[in-house]
Amino acid sequence: MVAVPWLGGASNNAMTHEVLWPQFEAVWPLLTTPDGTKTEAMPWNGLPLINTVVLLTSSVTLHFAHVSLEKGKRSAITLWLGITILLGMSFLALQAEEYIHAYREMGLTLTSGVYGNTFFLLTGFHGMHVTLGTVFLLVLFFRVLKGHFSADKHFAFQAGSWYWHFVDVVWLCLFIFVYVL
């Protein structure tokens, strides 16, 4: 997105677009490849919006689990943490469904130019982090069942919570820059 104006000849770069891609239009998302192939952008509503709600809800349920841990409520911790894990897994399943839709119905692939590459790179990298976070939360879940944490000694739980919330904030940025703008 930063390179788009530069490629379009902005600033002191008046000839780059003429040499590299004469028919280039400096707009985002780039939906036409240099060979003229057209693609379409993934709309923000539908699966991406549902996934955003799922991930934000998972942050709330994880917060409730953390508060329950600090209050020493074991059954509430397992309930809220279990819901958080299910929401993380739901996010990944919906992202897989989104990829299938993008590939089959929209023709969006890694060879779909800059937008296709950007879409799959950013959302795929985020999906990998959600997968790692879900594994981390599963480990914490089993540790909670074993009674490894107390109200005043639970740094590993807190670290996992921080990671999950960070991944959620990153998703909000991705949702805005990949889907909405």
Question: How does this structure look, described?
Answer:
The protein is mainly alpha-helical. It is built from six helices and no strands. It has helices at residues 3-7, 16-20, 47-70, 74-104, 113-145, 155-180. Helix 3 (47-70) runs antiparallel to helix 4 (74-104) and helix 4 (74-104) packs antiparallel against helix 5. The longest helix is centred in the last third of the chain and has 33 residues, at 113-145.
Order of helices and strands: HHHHHH
Radius of gyration over all CA atoms, rounded: 21 Å
Helices, by number, come to: 6
Oligomer: single chain
Distance between the termini: 10 Å
Which regions contain 5 or more consecutive residues with pLDDT less than 50? none
Structural class of the helix and strand makeup? mainly alpha
Choose one word for the global shape. elongated
Strand content: under 5%
Give the proportion of residues in helices.
55-70%
Précis, in short:
The chain has 181 residues and is mainly α. The protein has helices at residues 3-7, 16-20, 47-70, 74-104, 113-145, 155-180.
Key words describing this protein structure:
69% helix, mainly alpha, 0% strand
List the helices and strands and how they pair.
Blueprint: H1 3-7, H2 16-20, H3 47-70, H4 74-104, H5 113-145, H6 155-180
Helix pairs in contact: 3-4, 3-6, 4-5, 5-6
